[in-house]
# Entry
Amino acid sequence: MKTFYTDAHAGHAPEQEFEGGRWTPAVEIPARAEAVLAEVRARGFGSIEPPRHFGHVPILRVHDAGFVNFLSTLTDEWRRYHGPEADVALASAWPGRGLRDVPTRTVEGQIGHYCFDTATPVLPGTWPAALAAANVALTAADALARGERAAFALTRPPGHHASGDVYGGYCFLNNAAIAAQALTDRGFRTAVLDVDYHHGNGTQTIFYKRSDVLTVSLHADPDYAYPHYLGFADERGAGAGEGFNLNLPLPLGTAWDGYAPALDAAIARVAAHRPDALVVSLGLDTYAGDPISKFKLTADDYFRMGAVIAGAGAQTLFVMEGGYAIGDLGRIAANVLEGFLQAAR
Ligand code: SP5
Ligand code: ZN
# Structure
């Protein structure tokens, strides 16, 4: 299995995030991707290749043009408004209920429209890094189109919380959704399976009214976990997409004994869709040692996860999402890939 990677992610290096009413050390940092790269290289799964550049067209298949323009010019506009030293763009006001949710003239009147939380700082290096991650996912998707059984897009920053026109949750461009759309555009019947601890609200929203791309997510119940406002079991898709979104929210403290039946149900739904391509949003924050999450999967459980995913029988694109236990992150990511490769033989 090839891994696609570029060190361009390192331009997005937040020092702190604003969460729980205070500035705390950022957890979505370059060391994450570097740890996974080192382990994938050491375990020898296959070549590690750089992304090619696909331009804005495949990104605009998923994201709104105004949103892409906003993100790509945000640092410049932020400095124009707040002064040349201002290098962390973060919203101070949102269009809550009763207010008009429209982007106005100033960057302060736009950022609350385009962002949904305070924990996702935009730095001068953020847009190039986000763009590079989308290209990593697109290059890996192209490997599937060329006939590869599987590929690993080692993306950072992650993507699954970003919808067509809203960023947040450490995510800017939805790498997995962009890849899923590119595969669909090349004639693949496509499903997305999201195993990140947090519900993939962006991915769900992007495909919610469509039946061509199935979205399935296992995650911490939003009744107690971030992103709090989406990811409930009764969200089943709308219009033509009715029945083509499956949420499997799980309780606090879920370990493999509770996770495995839900993963089996998820794979059964994916298999029933008969996809040619399966895009896996590979969040690794379900790990017991994760610093911000509350599930209890062990390192060995990730071999099992990879093997179960292979059972879907589709060409599979793994796209990295969250996971913050940096000391073990490489090992658990590689365990998923190894479990998949052994079962897919
Ligand atoms: C891609 C991804 O995994 N994004 C997750 C974003 C979560 N951001 C807020 C998490 C709040 C967790 N609060 C726990 C505090 C522990 N000190
Ligand atoms: Zn997550």
DSSP finds ten helices and ten strands in the chain. Residues 196-198, 283, 285, 321-322 surround zinc ion (ligand 2) (CB under 6 Å).
